[in-house]
Amino acid sequence: MITGFPKAFPSTALRSNQREVKDAAQREATLITDNDSKLYGFVAVDELERMLVQVGKGEAYAARVAESVRRGRGQIARGEFTVGLESLKDFGAYS
Questions:
Q1: DSSP letter string over 40-60?
Q2: How many CB atoms sit inside 10 A of residue 79's CB?
Q3: pTM higher than 0.90, yes or no?
Q4: Does residue 1 sit within a domain?
């Protein structure tokens, strides 16, 4: 089972148990399968929007981390680094 899809239905349920599939998708991301092969994720629009916001937050965080690493590598290359907490006290960064 894929993480994030706690409920699974066979593809035939879209025709025979449509209400049950829709109700499940309203509450949580739902997996649609065919012969036990994963086909589709089915989710309510509100939940999809929430998931996309979370993805966006993760991407923004990853971009901030990448920028910090890039700046840090540049500082190291220029010799702008300190070793140990004691040396940070000289810069007022640690007290």
A1: EEE--HHHHHHHHHHHHHHHH
A2: 6
A3: no
A4: no
Phi then psi for 48, rounded to 5 degrees? -60, -45
Cα distance between residue 77 and residue 23, in whole Å: 57
pLDDT in tens, 23-75: 988 888 888 888 878 788 888 888 888 888 999 999 999 999 999 899 889 98
> β-strand 7-10 against 30-34: which pairing, if any?
parallel
**SS3 assignment, position 92:** coil
Is the residue at 71 inside a domain?
yes
User: Could you tell me if residue 2 is inside a domain?
Assistant: no
* Phi/psi at 47 (5° precision): -70, -40
